[in-house]
Amino acid sequence: MAASQPIPKTIYIGSFAHCISLNELEVCERGAIGVDEEGVIRFVERNVSNEEDIKLNFGEEWKDAKVVRLEGKGFFFPGFIDTHTHAPQHPNSGLFGKTTLLDWLTTYTFPLEASLSSLPKAHRIYTNFVSRTLSHGTTTCAYYATRHVPATNLLSSICLARGQRALVGRVCMDSLSPPYYRDASTASAVADSRACIEHTRRIDPSGTIVRPIVTPRFAPSCTAPCLAALGALAHETSSFIQTHISENHNEIALVKSLFPHSKSYTDVYDTANLLTPQTILAHAIHLSQDERDTIRARGAKISHCPASNTALTSGCCRVREYLDQGLTVGLGTDVSGGCSPSILEQVRQAIWTSRFVAMGGPGADQPDEKAKLSTCEALYLATRGGAEVVGLADKVGVFEVGREFDAQMVRLGVEVPEVEGESVQDSPVSLFSFESREEMVEKWVYSGDDRNCAVVWVRGRVVHKRKGVVV
Ligand SMILES: Nc1nc2[nH]cnc2c(=O)[nH]1
Ligand SMILES: [Zn+2]
Q1: In this structure, what are the phi and psi dihedrals at residue 340, rounded to the nearest 5 degrees?
Q2: Which of 247, 280, 286, 317 has the most ligand 1 atoms within 8 A of CB, as the residue to mutate?
C-alpha cells in the first residue's frame, strides 16, 4: 500500500514484545494495540480478556475498527532498523573468499557497483533487495547506493513506492578509486550529491519515508577538499551523513599516510565538519579512547556490523564497552561485507562477537565477562538503538502511545506433537508446550528467520506479507 493512502483504524490483538530499556524486555501475553488512520499508536492494553471490552473501553470511535488477530504462537515485535547496508552489493552476498577490506573492495565491490550505470540492472537489484530487507522485518534502512545519480534516485523512488523508511545516499569517491569508478572532481561529487538530495526532497517533501544522506564512502576514497565540501553540503541541506570508520588495520594505516597532519581517523572527519548528531559511522572497531570521546561529544552515532566484521576479518567491536561509555549504537547488515540482509542475524552475530571479546579474543587483552551482550541488549540495538541512530527515536522502536506502528508479526508455528508425527514445518523454531513467552522470544532470536516474519507494517501500512498470510 502506498505510504500516503489512508488506512482504517486497526486494533492488533495478541502477544507483543519490545524493549522497554537496554535491560528490560516486556513480553505481554494478551495485548491490544490501537492504531489510528495516520498509523499512530493510540492505546496499548495489557491483559485483555476480550476484544469487545477493548472496543467499549475506547469508545465510539473504535467501535468499527478493523481487528488483526495474531493466531497461534507468536508475537508482534517492533520493525528492525538496519543502520548500514549497500543495496548495489546485494548480488555479491556470500562472495568474498579470503579477502580483507581493501582487496575485497577492488576485487569484488567496485566492479559490481560500477556496473549499476545500467539502470535496468540497478532496477533489478534494488527491487529485489528492498523486498528482501522488508521480508526480514526491516522497516527502516540506511542505504548506500552507488555514485550514479539516476540509479541512486531510482533506489529512493523504490523505497518510497514500497513504503520502507529509508535514508538513501549517493556514494562520493574522488580519490584513490579505480579510473572506471570515481568522481571526476570534488565539484562534480558535490553537484551529483546535491541532485540526489533534491530528488529525494521532491518525491517525499516531508521526509516521512525517504530522506537523503550525504555519503563520503570513507576517508581513503575522498580528498580533504571533498570531505570538507560534503560536510558543508550536509549542513546547508540539513542532511544526515554516513561513512565508514576504523574498520581494518590496513585502512587505518592508509588514512594515516593520506592525512599525515590529522590526529586520528576520527579527526579527519571532525576537521571536515562531518561529525554531527545526524552522522552514522559504520564499523568503528578500532577506536582509541580519544576518538570515542570526540564521537560522543559531537553526538555522532555508531553502526555495529558484526557479520561483516567477521567475514572480512576486520575485528571484534567492543560494543558493551561503547554502551557503558555513552555511545549510541545500532546494528547494520553491511551487505555484502556481511552476507545476510537480516537484522535478526545481526542480533545473533552481535551476541557471538561480544562472547569472543568476553573470551579474550581479538579486541580484548584478557577474558572479560562484562563484554557479553544479552539477548535483550542486542534486540534493543536492533530496534530502539537503531531508531536513535537514524533520527527516529521519538517515532519508532517500541510500542508506546504516540509512536508510529512500524512492526512485524512473528509467527513461530505449531508445537511439536506429543505423539510421533510430522514435526518439521514452515518454521525453523521447534516449540514444545512448556516454553514461557520470554523463552519463545529467545528461541526466535537464536533459531528464527524470515519464515517467521509473517507480516510487516510501516506507519500501520502493510509493506510485506508472506505468501498465504491473510490480514
Ligand atoms: N564494509 C565496507 N567497508 C567499506 N569501506 C569503504 N567502502 C566500503 C564498503 O563498501 N563496505
Ligand atoms: Zn559498508
Answers
A1: -125, 140
A2: 247
Give ligand 1 pocket residues (Cβ under 6 A).
86, 101, 105, 109, 217-218, 244, 247, 308, 334, 337
What ipTM describes this predicted complex?
0.99
Ligand 1 atom with the smallest distance to the CA of 334 is: 1
- Out of 3.40.605.10, 3.20.20.140, 3.40.50.10240, 3.40.50.150, the CATH code matching 80-389 is 3.20.20.140
- What would the 3-class secondary structure string for 118-138 be? CHHHHHHHHHHHHHHHHHCCE
Flag whether pLDDT at 60 surpasses 90.
Answer: no
301-347 pLDDT tens trace: 999 999 999 999 999 999 999 999 999 999 999 999 999 999 999 99
Superfamily assignment of 10-78+396-465 in CATH? Urease, subunit C, domain 1 (2.30.40.10)
Residue of the nearest CA to atom 2 in ligand 1?
337
How is the chain split into domains, by residue range?
10-78+396-465, 80-389
Ligand with the closest atom to the CA of 307: 1
Question: Exposed, middle or buried: residue 72 (CB in 10 Å: 0-12, 13-18, 19+)?
Answer: exposed
Which stretch of DSSP H or E encloses residue 18? Answer: strand 10-21
165-169 and 407-413 beta bridge pairing = unpaired
**Cβ atoms within 10 Å of 276's Cβ, excluding its own:** 17
Q: Give the type of residue at 111.
A: P
- Concatenating the DSSP letter of every residue in 176-193 gives SS-TTSS-S-HHHHHHHH
Say if pTM beats, i.e. exceeds, 0.90: yes
Among the ranges given (13-27, 237-251, 405-419), the one the predictor scored with the smallest mean pLDDT: 405-419
Contact between 190 and 225 (Cβ < 8 Å)? no
